[in-house]
Amino acid sequence: MPEPYEEILEGETYLRSPPGTRHEKICSFLHEKVAASLAEIPGSRLLSPRSVIRLSAGTLIRPDLALVTAANHRLWLAAEIISADDHRFDTVLKKTIYESTGLPRLWMIDPRYDNVEIYHGSQYGLALQQILAARESLSEKLLPNLRIGISELFDNG
Questions:
Q1: Could you tell me which residues are beta bridge partners of residue 14?
Q2: How many domains does the chain have?
Q3: Is the CB of residue 104 less than 8 Å from the CB of residue 121?
Q4: Range of the domain at 151
Q5: Residues 153, 84, 86, CA angle at the centre, nearest 5°?
Q6: Phi and psi for 57 in degrees, rounded to 5?
Q7: Span 62-87, pLDDT tens digits
């Protein structure tokens, strides 16, 4: 079973609860699929689940999935699997920080409703592009080999 972990947001330390079994299954499945899609994309690296990423002075986050550029280790895609017991943390606090740092892509994966919200960075912040559910598929134009059925993602979790 995973251990509790810390994140530091704008200088304040938060102790996060260990993720549950379904959360971890979804995370593992997502990592497996994203890793396979990176075979021909040398410019990006997939970090281990909940790797520590320094976004700014006093902000150390641990996303469930993180893709960084190989050249400068800059985060360009983060995925957060929302936990029912502390969803505000991911959906409000961390999302606001991702937005303020200019994150290009954010996936908010919500096992409570079996859906995925896709956000793209813009000059005005993170903009919701789509909400995927049921028979739809998760894809990303910057990862041309990635295609994950939403029902498959949640069924494996």
A1: 7
A2: 1
A3: yes
A4: 20-48+62-155
A5: 125
A6: -60, 125
A7: 999 999 999 999 999 999 999 887 77
